[in-house]
Structure formats: structure tokens, C-alpha cells
Amino acid sequence: MLVFVRAGDRVGLASVRRAVAVGVVSLVDVPEAAEVIVVEISQESDLEELRKLRGSSTQAVIVAHTMRQDQALWQAAERSGADKVVSSGGLSVLLRQLDGRMRSSERRERLIPLCWTAEVAGRLGIIASVQHDLGELMLVKEQGKPVCLVGPCPHAGESLGRALVEDGVITCPAHGSQFLVAGGERVRGPADCGLMELRVVEDGGRYWAVSPPLS
Ligand code: FES
After folding, report:
1. Is 0.85 surpassed by the pTM of this model?
2. Which of 158, 162, 170, 171 gets mutated to test ligand 1 (max ligand atoms within 8 A of its CB)?
3. Which UniProt keywords apply (predicted)?
4. Are 129 and 202 found together in one domain?
5. 176 CA: nearest ligand 1 atom
6. In angstroms, what is the span from residue 175 Cα to ligand 1's centroid?
7. Residue finishing a domain among 102, 128, 149
8. Do both 152 and 193 map to the same domain?
9. Number of separate domains in the chain
10. 189 alpha carbon – ligand 1 mean position (Å)
11. Pocket test residue of 177, 179, 187 for ligand 1, highest count of atoms within 8 A of CB
């Protein structure tokens, strides 16, 4: 997680150093490059600085921290644009939590929605087909768990969204290439390779394909 730190008291800076030491935080030199901006607040001029940062950094999470147990100051920091206000001693815990949330949001972005499970309950064959940058994502169910294979057909690009599925094999409607449902392996040409398979997860009433990790 990329963090810009604007000044800070001794306790707050020690908290940030701990987060850096365990790999939760990488420090950046300018607020424009940061996912999280850390600002110490102890006086009115800090609130003014906070307002400026809020105005120029609309995307970053701004964390204000202070050694002062002063409710009015904490509320003023929130009004000035802080997303979170914590005691300086609690900063490192909060940075860990923010990092965990950002990582899980990255994981969510890797899930590609395929269809609602209720819509395809009891159906067999290619039960959903979704166009995506990766290709034609087909959710195939024959026996057991659904699998996701990526079309179109590698021979001449025919869509496999309405292909026949029988005995664990998908047959391309154009020239008859065949692929195993389990794993996408080529069974018969003219296609000279198989289909990529993506992992499928069921969550929140939907089937999702898990896109391969970015390299
Ligand atoms: S396009 Fe599928 S076999 Fe030719």
C-alpha cells in the first residue's frame, strides 16, 4: 500500500515505521502517488493543510492522527476531509486494516460475474456465456461442479456459446473440433489446441470466473 506521510509526531512516525517494517506500507514522496495519506493534526494550521490535501487528493484515503484526546479536534478533522481519525498509537493497526481491505478489493476485481445461480439451476450444457476481454467465457455444467472455459473455438473463431455438450465433450458447430469439458483439452481437430479453463467460484448467489493473475 502506497502511503504519503505529512510530518508527524514521534509516536505516529514510529507506527508508520512499524508498518513499513512488516511490508504493509511503502512510502512515497508526493501525495499524488499515494493510496493513503497520513497527516498529523495538533493545531488549526494542520486542519488547513488537511483541507488542502483533501481538495487535491480526491481518491486517496486520508488518515489524520493525533496525540491529543480532544473530541472537538477529531470532529474538526473529519469535517476537514479526513476519512479516518485515530490516536497516533493506533495508526499502525489502522494501516494494516486498510492494507487488508485494499488487497481484498483487488481480489474482488479479479472475479468476473457469469450469471445468477438461481437462473441456471437444473440446467446442463453451456449454461451461460459472457463476452469479456479474455474471450467468450462459457459456464459449462454437465456432471458435478460447473467449469468455465474460454472460447471462441481456436480453429477459426466460431462462437461456442451454443455448442453441443455431450459425454463430457464440447463440439464446435462449425467444423467439429472437440474439447473436454473438464480442463478444455483438445480431443479432435481441426483445432490444434484446447480451450483455457478458469476457476469458478460461487458467492453471493452468483457464479464468478476467476481471471488469471496479472503478470
Ligand atoms: S471454428 Fe471450430 S472447428 Fe472450425
Report:
1. no
2. 158
3. 2Fe-2S, Iron, Iron-sulfur, Metal-binding
4. yes
5. 3
6. 5
7. 102
8. yes
9. 2
10. 8
11. 177
* Whether residues 163 and 206 fall in one domain: yes
Query: Ligand 1 centre from 93 Cα, in Å?
Result: 56
Q: How far is the CA of 180 from the centre of ligand 1 (A)?
A: 15
From CA 191, how far away is CA 171, in angstroms rounded? 11
Q: Which residues contact 208 (CB under 8 A, 6 or more apart)?
A: 111, 112, 113, 114, 200, 201, 202
Q: Quick one: pLDDT band at residue 104, thresholds 50, 70, 90?
A: low
CATH of the domain at 185: 2.102.10.10
Mean pLDDT of 109-124: 84
User: Are 135 and 156 in a shared domain?
Assistant: yes
| Ligand 1 atom nearest 172 alpha carbon | 2
User: Which of 136, 149, 153 gets mutated to test ligand 1 (max ligand atoms within 8 A of its CB)?
Assistant: 153
Structural domain contains residue 116? yes
Which amino acid appears at position 136 of this protein? E
Q: Are 212 and 178 in contact (CB under 8 A)?
A: no
Question: Is a pLDDT exceeding 80 seen at residue 9?
Answer: no
Q: So what's the pLDDT on residue 108?
A: 55
102, 133, 160 — which closes off a domain?
Answer: 102
CA distances from 198 to 82, 134, 137, 177 (A): 40, 10, 9, 20
**Alpha carbons 38 and 91: distance in angstroms, whole number:** 9
